Amino acid sequence: MQLSDFNFDLPDELIARYPLETRSASRLLHLNTSGSYQDLHFTDILDLFEEGDLMVLNDTKVMKARLKGKRATGGAVEVLVERIFNQTIAHCHIKASNSPKAGAELFIGEDAIKVTVIGRHENLFEVEFSQPILQVLDRYGQLPIPPYFNREAEEIDTVRYQTVFNDPTKLASVAAPTASLHFDQNLLDQLEQKGIHKAFVTLHVGAGTFLPVRTTDIANHVMHSEWCDVPEATAKLIQETQARGNKVIAVGTTATRALESAAQACGGKIGAWMGDTQIFIYPGYQFCVVDRLITNFHLPESTLLMLVSALSNQENILNAYQHAIAQQYRFFSYGDAMLVDRI
Question: Which helix (H) or strand (E) holds 311?
Answer without folding.
Answer: helix 303-311
